[in-house]
Amino acid sequence: MPGVAVASFGAALVAALVLGLVNAVIRPILILLTLPATILTLGLFIFVINGLLFWFVGSFIQGFVVAGFWWGVLGAIVYSIFSWLLAALVFPTRGAPGGRPT
User: Fold this and answer.
1) Residue 101's pLDDT band (boundaries 50, 70, 90)?
2) What is the pTM of this model?
3) Which of 2, 29, 69, 96 stands the most exposed, by the fewest C-beta atoms within 10 Å?
């Protein structure tokens, strides 16, 4: 993506680690604080939160650059899709509760 640049594999690993920590610690607090806006926009405000956090991480990790807010939103969406696909491949779903496979 032209608006998101990673200088090296090490910078990508550090950015992923910091982004994971930020998503685990700061994101739940922001979601709780912005709950009225999230409800009012039917959950779409979470894209804004994800984009801001992605942009925030890009602002202080050397070698990981996010060009602006909208690139942060797009980067957060791509990151979420990639994480979801990776989790689906690594941790395949089990059968339905009650012993019956679906």
Assistant:
1) low
2) 0.78
3) 2
